[in-house]
What we know:
The chain is 5% helix and 17% strand. It is mainly beta. The strands form 4 sheets. It has a 4-stranded antiparallel β-sheet, covered by helices on one side. The chain has 2 domains: 165 residues, Pectate Lyase C-like, CATH 2.160.20; 105 residues, no CATH class. A hairpin with an 8-residue loop joins β9 and β10.
Amino acid sequence: MLIEIKNRVDSKVILSGEYESVKDCLVTNKKANLSDADLSGANLSDADLSGADLSGANLSGANLSGATLSGADLCGADLSGAYLSGANLIGANLREANLSGANLSDADLSGANLSDADLSGADLSGAYLSDADLSDANLCGADLIRANLRGANLIRANLRGAKGLIKIMGVEPGNFYWKRFELGLKNNGFQFKVGLNELKKREIFAEDERILCSNPGFHFASRTWCAVNYSERRIEAKIQIPLDAKINEPWATDGKASADKIIILQVFDVDTGEDITGKFSV
Length: 282
């Protein structure tokens, strides 16, 4: 079957030959210049396009699931409606690219340049966007559930209607924190109650701040941190740390700390938002 990939600007044939698919054509010609190429609707799943020059290329509706595009130049490329689930886009240049309606679920975009990119309505659920440049990007209506935005640059980005954005610190006034529990207000074999909760007799509070998640001790964090890291636990409680409590915030903390005693103030059903404090009051 004759495959021809043409330049959209001057209709010049960049690649031609006998190939079974566009993917085979690209695998055979890895170092080809694909800038401004028309690859709309192409099946490029699992293709290795690392470092490829795809600037200005038309990849609208293309299947790039599982593809390797690390370090690729996709500046100004049209990836609207493209399927990029699980793709490796580490360090890729996606500046001014059109990714509207694209599926980027679980894709790795760490360190990618997405400045000025159109990501409106894109599926970025579970995407890894650590240290990505999203300055001036359009993320209107994008799905960012479970997306990792650690260190990402979101200056001037349009986040209107974006779903799943969670501020991990969850700062709120007062000496209040949150904790999530298993059904019955239990956690790690300990039965909690509304009011003051202290360690069991003969338990010695772990004060070594060099140890992450030390035990014994009652761990707590912000409400949003708990939601991200303990999503399977369907009961949450607003707590307060007594002024005389011992506290351990490890040097290598992942977002939570611990204390030898906590006061549970309110208990909520995560699914309904209902205040169920009365069910656990003594």
